[in-house]
Every structure is written in structure tokens, then in C-alpha cells.
Amino acid sequence: MSQADLVIIGVSVGVAVGILIALCAFVGIKWYRKRFHPQRCASEPSVTTLPIRTNGIGTSIDSSASISSSITTNGLQHPAKSTQRSWWNQHNKDLFASASGIPRYSYKDIQKATHNFTTILGQGSFGPVYKATMPTSEVVAVKVLASNSRQGEKEFQTEVLLLGRLHHRNLVNLVGYCVDKGQHMLIYQYMSNGSLANLLYCEGERILSWEERLQIVLDVSHGIEYLHEGAVPPVIHRDLKSANILLDQSMRAKVADFGLSKEEVFDGRKSGLKGTYGYIDPEYMSTNRFTKKSDIYSFGIIIFELITAIHPQQNLMEYVNLAAMDSDGVDEILDKKLVGKCNLEEVRLLANIAYKCLHKIPRKRPSIGDISQAISRIRKRRLTKEDTMSFAGDVSQVVRRIEHQQVELSKITNMRDNAGIT
């Protein structure tokens, strides 16, 4: 056998061994992916379940979903069975419940409490909302994630985990949740007077007095102050709007809907556009960076809503900018229902706070703590004036009583003098 033949044989054996090794490696990788990939998918939300809300007046948006999600969504025949259940395997349910600390109810519990889902209160971006009476006789509101809702599990998860650790008198309490039979439900304390948006814009609703509006602004500022400065780590709401301000039976306001909220983490990353048109900070729209000052901007819009009863998507900012040209320009855009029934000086002071919240440069907007103090001063000023007026009224009554008594005494004296003369 020649040397050339030996070389050929050696090369052939080497090639064969290389092919065999590559084949073994391929089979090994394929086996590994089959075994571990489904487990990973079960614990992570799929791309198609990213939180996207239906666009429209008053609804929130979330453009953070990738293009692939919009392509693959059309091919989903049973989202409730595939995407919505993927995250909720039994192991993760237990972890979720322990992490949130919020009671979990069964589908049957909610079905009974809502009389088989017949006590509907309204329809939101999340899905239908029902009134329910729990076994403890507590009246609650149940938000059901619609099977075709584009809001997705991520916002549901965010809401439960955040509200499990956030507790304040000006935040709506989450009292339970349900993940059962392919359904996702959030159970809140019942807010009998509905949303601020309904009271401002729906015909037939009660008229909010100036005193009530001032108290609502103060309540909301306290709720945001807790999120920004009381929570650890701080929380940015990212969807503050009048529809997310709910009122209890005493007309005290509470901030709701934390599905888009995010803990403030300075990781340098950008997120997709989230929020509701009309309330979104222009700086956020251009930089894609949401900060506490973006919440402040949204709060400024809410303040002007309370002053004007004009919806942000009905050219509110045009009216606000025109009013800014005159020191008392806000008088011209004041809600007609308040004309002659409020103190215009207080209206101007509150409008001045709102203008500061809407400053084009975010860092020049005041902190929520400063805003709360400024609103408190307006209200304190009002209460002081009322006390002074009340005191003045009491004094005048006392003076009139004394004068009356003096007249009576004078008459008695005269009668005695006349009797002595006769």
C-alpha cells in the first residue's frame, strides 16, 4: 500500500469521525431544547400576551409589543387556552399568591357573588366590571379580563403584585383575585360614586361643587405622593387620568388601575409608549422615557379637567394655552356649573399649580410633595375664611342679642320710673 493510499484512508476516517461527532451534537442539542424549552415558556409570558389596550377615547395604549405579536395574534384560535394559561401553571400560581399576599378566590366564589355575572356595572379597557357581594357581606367590584382583551396577563400580574404591597387611604384596595377556568379577575373595594370622568362628563350625574373638586385634587395628590415618595422603591403610575380616579360614598378620591405602573428603576432602558392620549407628557413621547415628572404632567391635566370639565381629547390644552395669555384667563374657561358658585381667587391659585405641572421642561415641574402642600394651603385658606365668617356671624348675633336685652331693660326701667311718679 502506497503512502498516497494511507493519506486518503486517514482523511476519509477523519471526515467520518467529524460527521459522527456533529451528528451526535445535533441530536443532543435537539433533545435538550425539547426537554427544557417548554418549562421556560410556561414560566414566561409569550410575546403575544404583552399588554396592549384597545385605542379610543379615554383608553390606554401600549405600543411596547413587538411587530411579531401583531402578526401571530391573527393565528390564535384559543387565546384563553394557550396564551392566558401559559403563565399560570400550578407552581407559578402558588408563588404568585405568596408574593402578593392577596387572597385568591375560585371561579365558583365569584360566580355566586355576582349572581352568575348578572350584576354588571360597566365596561372598561380591561373587560366587564361586576358588582359582587362576598360571603363576608363585603360589597366589591370585580373586573373580568375579557377573553379577547388585548391588555394581557402582564398588566394583570403587575396590578396584583404592586397592590399587594401598596396600601394607602387614597389608593383603591385590591381585596382579591381569581385565576380559574381560564378566567382572570381582579376584586376591588367597591367605589359607589364611580369615576371622576363619569361625574364630569356624563349627563344626569350629580354636579361636583367647588369644595368637592378641591378635596378630590388634594386626595389624588396624596395618593400620588405615596407612590412617588412613600413607596419603596417608588412607583410611577404611568396612566393617571380622570377615568382612573374613583370616588367612595363619602366622595373621597382614590387612585386606581395600576396595570401600566412600574417601579422606578434607573437602568437606562427605554420602554414602549404607554398611557392615554391627552394625558401623556410630550417629553415622554419624544424621548420614550417615563419619570415621576411625567405623572406630574398627567396630574396637571386632571386639575384642569376639574376646573373646566373639558376632556383632554376635546382640545383641553388649546383652551388652557389661550387662558394662560391673561392673568385671569382661567375665569373664561371655568366650568359653567361653577360660575357664581366658587371663589375665583381659589380657582386661579389652583390653575397656577396646574400650569406648573404642565411646564415643558420636566425638571422645572414641582414635586408631588410641593404640589400637595400648595393645594393644602388653598384649602386651609378657605377653611380659615369660613371660620372667620362664621365667627363674625356669631359675634353679630351676640351683639344683636345684647342690644335687644338693653332695649328690654330700658323699657322695664322706664316702666318703674313711671310707676314711682304716679
From TrEMBL:
Presence of keyword Phosphoprotein: no
Pfam families per UniProt: PK_Tyr_Ser-Thr
Chain segments annotated as transmembrane: 6-29
UniProt entry keywords in alphabetical sequence: ATP-binding, Membrane, Nucleotide-binding, Transmembrane, Transmembrane helix
Domain named Protein kinase: residues: 115-378
A molecular function GO annotation: ATP binding
InterPro entries given in the database record: Kinase-like_dom_sf (IPR011009), Prot_kinase_dom (IPR000719), Ser-Thr/Tyr_kinase_cat_dom (IPR001245), Ser/Thr_kinase_AS (IPR008271)
Protein name: Calcium/calmodulin-regulated receptor-like kinase 2
Organism phylogeny: Eukaryota, Viridiplantae, Streptophyta, Embryophyta, Tracheophyta
